[in-house]
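Late entry, written up from scratch paper. The run itself happened at the end of the previous shift, but nothing got recorded in the book at the time, so transcribing now.
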Amino acid sequence: MPGLTFNIWSILILVGAAQGLLLSIFLFLKRENKQANKWLAFLLVIVSLHLLEYAAGISGITLRYPALIAITYPLLFCMGPLYFFYCRHLLDKNYRLDYKAILHFFPSVVVLLAMFPFYAMPAAEKVNFMKGLSDGNSIQIPAGQLVFMSLHVLQTVAYIFAAYKLIRKREEELKHVSSDVIVVKKLDWLNSFNRFFAVYLLLYLVLVVTLVVINSYQVQVDYVMLLITSCSIHAIGYAGIQNPEIFRALPDPPLQQLQIEVGPKDKPRNGVKHAQLKEKLLLYMERNKPHLKSDLKISELAELLSVQSYQLSQLINDEFSVSFYDFVNKYRVEEAKKLLMEDSRNYKMLAIAYEVGFNSKATFNRVFKKFTDLTPSDFKEKFSGD
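Output as recorded:
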């Protein structure tokens, strides 16, 4: 029987797989937002199992137990659907899947059936087949595997694009009804997740094209891709520890209710009333400072002004050409600028962020720079007069 060899690559990949499995258990046990978190947990389980399979191959375990060879390949076609369902549930906690959802996993079943002849091979034949592909550090790639890899990339790209469109739509709707930075932070998390997934697939696609051209590759190329995957799991875990709110559902109403709140966009405006409402809004913002409430919603502000939500939304869109989120944050930034320009150095940046309506220092820095082209620290240094 072949001996086992554990090198630095196999150890690093095993650590990543263990991290992924632990994180998936945490998400399965987490009571909050179970519907969304379970899909992310399933995704992490599949990625971790795939890493374990590769680590087993590197260390020689699969040559001892040939039944493990390529066993996770059909599961890779579940990654796209699982990621999309995670985004769908995180963006709308009232979303429910129907029986048609099972069709999303049909490609995985097709791959399983296509690979069944390989799985049914006798153990010795499998080992000989795998050894026949290897020539030292260079591996010959079967045409079937290239087709499999290409289809996997195309399918996952389709789901990433669908998730991107969903996130952008939800982002636009939320910014018109809420000024809650935690809500937008979750959307930032999803956008970052989506971008990373896209970059990862781009690297994977480059690998596929390279393999098609040269029809062989050094095993270290595979190691690098797997190490990136391993590091990604660590990044997800770190993000969850630093910002646990990203694993909680968005507290806002579902998509349908948000659309109703915005109201009919083609409703005629009364110019006089529009001007009166604008004056009333600006006066109320200046005197009462509702923007200091971190989770202020347009429905709450509209009620305080004794108008309908869609009327206030139309006013902000027409007169200020910004979303409700940006409208409120501009006031928060102005409030922060006043505090930063005071002589006292006792103000901490996080304290200022909390005082003006932000509940995240990172979001405070990003929004402040958006409106001033300076970070809060740079602004204080430039204008405080110290």
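Residues 255-383 form a domain with the Arc Repressor Mutant, subunit A fold (CATH 1.10.10.60).
(Scratch paper discarded after transcription.)
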